[in-house]
C-alpha cells in the first residue's frame, strides 16, 4: 500500500473509571491500530492511573479493563509514553505500572516492556512531531 | 424485545447480531447450536480456535481483531494455523466475528 503513514498520538489525561473516556480511548486505539498508522499512546495527569497495576473494580461494578492494555503490543502499538512529572505528582513510579510486551511475529524480535517514562520536554517534542493528536 | 437461542431446552439471550448477551452463560452446546445454524459441524480444529478465544478474553478482557487473532493463533498453535486462509476455511463468515460468536464473546474490537 502506498498510503502516507501519519503519526497519530492518543493522549490520555483522565482516571480510568468514573468517566467513559479511558475505555473509549483504548477502544479507539485498538480500532485505529488496524489502519497501519504510526501510533503512540501518551499518559498524562490522572491518565497515568490507567496503567497502574492491581486494579480492582468489583466494588464500583465496572469492567476492569486494565488487562486490555497488555494487548496493545499485539495490536502493533510500539510506543507507550508516561509523563514522569504526572507520575511523581501522584507518588507513583514506573514500578507501579503494568508492563506491556511487544513482539514481531515474523522476525521474533521482542521488547519486554514498551512503556517508557519520559520527562516533560520530551512529551512536548513528541506532541510537536505528531500529525494528529486525539485527546481523551 | 430480545432474541434468544435454545440449547438443551434452555433459552439464552442474544443481541441483534446473534452474539450471546451474557458471557458467563456460555456452555459448549451454545457453540454447537450456533454453528449448526450456520451449517457448520464443529471439529477439534474449530474447538481449538473457540477455546483459544475464550482464553484470550479471560486474559485480556477483549475479543481480538482478526489480524491479532491470526498472529496470536500462529504463536500458540503453530504457523500452519496462524494464517487467514486456514482460519477462513474453518469460519467462512470471518474467523474473528464468527468464532467469537460461537465462543460467546462480544463482537471483536476493531470489527465494523
TrEMBL record, chain A:
<protein>
    <submittedName>
        <fullName>Sulfur relay protein TusC/DsrF</fullName>
    </submittedName>
</protein>
<dbReference type="InterPro" id="IPR017462">
    <property type="entry name" value="Sulphur_relay_TusC/DsrF"/>
</dbReference>
<comment type="similarity">
    <text>Belongs to the DsrF/TusC family.</text>
</comment>
<dbReference type="InterPro" id="IPR027396">
    <property type="entry name" value="DsrEFH-like"/>
</dbReference>
<dbReference type="Pfam" id="PF02635">
    <property type="entry name" value="DsrE"/>
</dbReference>
<dbReference type="InterPro" id="IPR003787">
    <property type="entry name" value="Sulphur_relay_DsrE/F-like"/>
</dbReference>
TrEMBL record, chain B:
<dbReference type="InterPro" id="IPR043163">
    <property type="entry name" value="DsrC-like_N"/>
</dbReference>
<keyword id="KW-0808">Transferase</keyword>
<comment type="function">
    <text>Part of a sulfur-relay system.</text>
</comment>
<protein>
    <recommendedName>
        <fullName>Sulfurtransferase</fullName>
        <ecNumber>2.8.1.-</ecNumber>
    </recommendedName>
</protein>
<comment type="similarity">
    <text>Belongs to the dsrC/tusE family.</text>
</comment>
<dbReference type="GO" id="GO:0002143">
    <property type="term" value="P:tRNA wobble position uridine thiolation"/>
</dbReference>
<keyword id="KW-0963">Cytoplasm</keyword>
<dbReference type="InterPro" id="IPR025526">
    <property type="entry name" value="DsrC-like_dom_sf"/>
</dbReference>
<feature type="active site" description="Cysteine persulfide intermediate">
    <location>
        <position position="111"/>
    </location>
</feature>
<dbReference type="GO" id="GO:0016740">
    <property type="term" value="F:transferase activity"/>
</dbReference>
<dbReference type="GO" id="GO:0097163">
    <property type="term" value="F:sulfur carrier activity"/>
</dbReference>
<dbReference type="InterPro" id="IPR007453">
    <property type="entry name" value="DsrC/TusE"/>
</dbReference>
<dbReference type="Pfam" id="PF04358">
    <property type="entry name" value="DsrC"/>
</dbReference>
<dbReference type="InterPro" id="IPR042072">
    <property type="entry name" value="DsrC-like_C"/>
</dbReference>
<dbReference type="GO" id="GO:0005737">
    <property type="term" value="C:cytoplasm"/>
</dbReference>
